[in-house]
Amino acid sequence: MDNRPQVKPPSQTIHRLPSPTEPRPSTREEIKAFVAALDDHWRPLFLTLIFTGMRSSEVRGLRWQDVDLKRGEVSVRQRVDRWKKIGKPKSKAGIRTIPIPPMVINSLKALKLKQASISEIVFANPSGTTRTHVNLVNRGLQPTMIRAGISIDTGKVRVRGKPIMKAKYTGLHALRHFYASWLINRKEDGGLGLPVKMVQERMGHSSIVMTMDTYGHLFPRTDDGTELAQAANVLLN
Question: CA 80, 107, 65: angle at the middle one, nearest 5?
Answer without folding.
Answer: 45
